[in-house]
Amino acid sequence: MCDRCGCQGPDSRLAPSAGSERSAAESGAGSREIQVEGRILAENDRLARHNRAHFVEHRLFAINLMGAPGAGKTALLEATIRAMAGRWRVAAIEGDQATQRDRDRIAATGAAVEQIETGLGCHLDAHQVHHALDRLPLAGVDALFIENVGNLVCPALFDLGEHLRVVVTSPTEGADKPLKYPPMFRAADLVVLNKIDLLPHVPFDLSDWHGYVMAINRRATILMTCATSGAGIDDWIAVLMRARGAAAGASR
Amino acid sequence: MSVALLDTVMHELSIARALIAVAERHLPPAGGSVRALRVAVGAATGVVPAALEWAFQAAAAGSRLAGAQLIIDRVAARSRCTTCRCEYCFDDVLGRCPVCGALGGELLAGEELTLRSLEVADV
Q1: N or C: lower Cβ tally within 10 Å for chain B?
Q2: How close A41 gets to chain B, by Cα (Å)?
Q3: pLDDT digits (tens, 9 = 90+) for A3-22
Q4: Rama region for A30: left / alpha / beta (φ>0; ψ in -120 to 50; rest)
């Protein structure tokens, strides 16, 4: 442990119990303490495990597609479904605050799709996905894409039971997004820079962006795509197929 | 701000609701009021303590936890610098190596989000 940040010092403000305002002497009179030490998101985690078991049972590879609104998640999904035609049967769950618009876009590709309208919610949780799974015809489906609510903060905390976490970003969002939203990029298995056709037109330093992703998450695979022209889609699909193979091997 | 409106801008309300559900499962079926809950929040989760506290008070209304004090233990995050390999602690979501200044790094700790204990008044 490096000693320069002072976290191990006697009066460190970063010691694990920093921020606690009550001493032991303050509590205790006329009361008792019940030790819990339980994860706050335990129920979400339990339902995520349940979803995962469901995916394994159906031999289904599940992908949690996250990113800011407008990064091109739905366009990437449309391009993926069309490029996978004849190879994988794909189903999708679409998460948005409102409307069935993305459901309609995905349905137009022929894939089975369910929309979750979160209303006031800023992310999908395992419970919502569990109910959407009940409504989706999953027989014969190879891959399920769960397109999360467009948001770079909240979805990072909620396990949906997926095998693969993908963050989609785009040049207009700026190269420093990974530094500004570290939990989201830290949670990613795969980071996709979409809309690369815009690179010549916007101030976006690709090498800075690459360095920032690596600074936050060295294990992430980085890909570049343009969903509208199809550039990079073959690489993306090859990575998905490899990841599916690895997940199938791990669950056997 | 109403609870419904609050939910549009932050996930702390979802976390507060989950916290209340976990706490209720650990309460004795009959008993006194809940005086306090102690939770651990890792810095790297990005959960904002003040927002969680507000959300908790709003979500606890009408439950056995209404009025209970939420004691938040902020847990420092720890990273290994990917440039100089130094291990260091930090108190935000990103981290900056105190030795070489590199941002980020490999996260070793700081994703805690746990209910540690409940303080229940004697009947």
Answers
A1: C
A2: 6
A3: 455 455 443 333 333 334 44
A4: left
Sorted by where each begins, the domain ranges of chain A are 42-251
Cα separation, A166 vs A174, in Å, equals: 18
In a domain, B25, yes or no: yes
pTM of the model: 0.89
pLDDT digits (tens, 9 = 90+) for A144-155: 999 999 999 999
Q: Which of residues 45-104 of A touch B (CB under 8 A)?
A: 97
Tell me the chain A residues in contact with residue B9 when contact means C-beta distances shorter than 8 Å.
122
Give the largest Cα separation in chain A, rounded.
70
Tell me the per-residue pLDDT of A24-78, one tens digit each, with 9 for 90 and over.
Answer: 445 567 899 999 999 999 999 999 999 999 999 999 999 999 999 999 999 999 9
Give the contacts of A85 (CB within 8 A, at least 6 positions apart). none
CATH topology of domain A42-251: Rossmann fold (3.40.50)
CB A36 to CB B120 under 8 A? Answer: no
Residue B101 belongs to some domain of the structure: no
Which residues from chain B sit within 8 angstroms of residue A17, using beta carbons? 73
